[in-house]
């Protein structure tokens, strides 16, 4: 089980930071099979591997397995977040979030997301220059979430939140020892400050709604405030609103920016894929005037581009591992997992299994022309009742940004070192520097 409290935590974190996390776990599978035990982040833990394990976790009865993140994540995000809740509370919060994040509701936000992306490109990508992709993609996803999730205009408060979120992310997956100068202490302090800003924002939006000076559909926080039961009482408390707005922010901030960064790298290294994506997007651009925003129907026509994005997620998943906790003694694969144990699995490992995806290191978007053949083998957005509620939000964000990039720019890598590590999310060592050149005929991204 490893050292007291620390267990195997430092070994796993070190492997992830040197981009060897999957090899570290594969060695464990080689030695002990698809079910084994260890200690992680202060908890006795069982490690599960394979499509059957993915299916077991994603479809398990809520009375047997509960959402239960490592103490570092739970204390930084808050106890009332969706990833921590189970049973009726999970259902209530998820249904509330889906009021805002379901496709029918998101259609009205395509134009706002389009506008944020145009503004970002005008500010950061114009002309011929060298830029670092990953920091700029993080700036973009942060601005989109601030606008659509929080309803925060550009200015001092948004800038402060950006600084705080950077610190929050640094200690999300760490040994939860609250001592000075540790990553965990820094993230915990930044989380408290960020959540105070979100609580203040929640109070402001409630006051605006009560005065009927604003719409409950203008952002996620306003939407959650506007949800009432049959007695006209709030369905969600202020603390739940703050914790879950914070959760959506964290879930969307890194994941979408990572996918977009890997797509930029792919399109720079594979001219044939770039040509096909560009052709699809230019055909859509021909139907638009320079001032016409993208629509939901335009996104539906970006089929090849989304297959490219899906294959990118298969090979380079932003989220490496996840956790649950047993509510009672349960049996799996002939073993008894005791009540209170942590269940740990790296669902994405099945996405590089050559028994499921032949030649898994080869980039091949055609794999997803007919969907996934093996259930629970592609789980970039989770699965079952707990599939990521923000998957459509991410799709809109990704397709819209790629549309304006390939119709407005060409680019090439400006470094031979395009490697990355996981800390715990993928991070490029140099931020992925590229040299961009604006297409002379490009007008679609003009604000």
UniProtKB/TrEMBL annotation:
Name of a matching Pfam family: p450
Keyword match Cell wall biogenesis/degradation: no
GO CC, alphabetical: membrane
Protein family per UniProt: Belongs to the cytochrome P450 family.
Cofactor(s) named in the record: heme
Matches recorded under InterPro entries: Cyt_P450 (IPR001128), Cyt_P450_CS (IPR017972), Cyt_P450_E_grp-I (IPR002401), Cyt_P450_sf (IPR036396)
GO molecular function terms attached to this record: metal ion binding; oxidoreductase activity, acting on paired donors, with incorporation or reduction of molecular oxygen, reduced flavin or flavoprotein as one donor, and incorporation of one atom of oxygen
Binding site for heme: 388
High-level lineage: Eukaryota, Viridiplantae, Streptophyta, Embryophyta, Tracheophyta
Compartment(s) where it occurs, according to its Swiss-Prot or TrEMBL record: Membrane
Residue ranges of coiled coil: none
UniProt protein name: Cytochrome P450
Mode of membrane association: Single-pass membrane protein
SUPFAM superfamilies: Cytochrome P450 (SSF48264)
Keyword line: Heme, Iron, Membrane, Metal-binding, Monooxygenase, Oxidoreductase, Transmembrane, Transmembrane helix
């Amino acid at each position: 089980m490893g050292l007291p409290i620390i267990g195997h935590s430092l070994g796993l974190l070190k492997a992830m930071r040197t981009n060897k996390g999957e090899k570290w776990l594969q060695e464990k599978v080689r030695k002990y099979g698809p079910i084994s035990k260890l200690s992680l982040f202060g908890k006795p833990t069982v490690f599960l591997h394979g499509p059957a394990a993915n299916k077991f976790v994603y479809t398990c009865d809520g009375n047997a397995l509960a959402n239960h993140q490592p103490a570092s994540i739970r204390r930084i995000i808050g106890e009332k977040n969706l990833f921590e809740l189970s049973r009726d509370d999970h259902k209530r919060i998820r249904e509330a979030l889906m009021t805002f994040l379901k496709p029918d509701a998101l259609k009205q936000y395509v134009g706002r997301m389009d506008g944020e992306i145009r503004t970002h490109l005008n500010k950061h990508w114009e002309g011929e220059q060298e830029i670092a992709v990953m920091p700029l993609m993080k700036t973009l996803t942060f601005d989109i979430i601030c606008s659509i999730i929080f309803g925060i205009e550009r200015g001092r408060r948004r800038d402060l939140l950006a600084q705080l979120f950077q610190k929050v992310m640094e200690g999300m997956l760490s040994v939860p020892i609250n001592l000075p100068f540790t990553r965990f202490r820094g993230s915990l302090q930044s989380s408290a400050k960020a959540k105070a800003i979100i609580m203040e924002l929640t109070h402001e939006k409630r006051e605006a709604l009560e005065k009927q000076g604003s719409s409950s559909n203008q952002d996620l926080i306003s939407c959650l405030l506007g949800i009432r039961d049959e007695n006209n009482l709030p369905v969600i408390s202020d603390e739940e609103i703050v914790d879950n707005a914070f959760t959506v922010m964290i879930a969307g901030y890194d994941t979408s920016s990572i996918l977009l960064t890997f797509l930029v790298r792919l399109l720079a290294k594979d001219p044939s894929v770039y040509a096909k994506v560009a052709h699809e997007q230019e055909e859509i651009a021909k139907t638009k005037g320079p001032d016409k925003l993208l629509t939901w129907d335009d996104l539906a026509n970006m089929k090849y581009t989304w297959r490219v994005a899906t294959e990118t997620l298969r090979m380079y998943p932003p989220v490496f591992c996840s956790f649950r906790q047993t509510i009672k003694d349960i049996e799996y694969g002939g073993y008894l997992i005791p009540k209170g144990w942590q269940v740990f699995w790296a669902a994405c490992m099945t996405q590089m299994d050559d028994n499921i995806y032949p030649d898994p290191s080869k980039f091949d978007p055609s794999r997803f022309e007919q969907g996934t053949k093996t259930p629970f083998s592609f789980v970039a957005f989770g699965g079952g009742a707990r599939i990521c509620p923000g998957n459509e939000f991410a799709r809109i964000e990704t397709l819209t940004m790629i549309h304006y990039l390939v119709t407005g720019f060409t680019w090439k890598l400006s470094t031979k070192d395009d490697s990355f590590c996981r800390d715990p999310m993928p991070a490029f060592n140099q931020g992925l520097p590229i040299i961009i050149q604006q297409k002379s005929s490009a007008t679609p991204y003009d604000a």
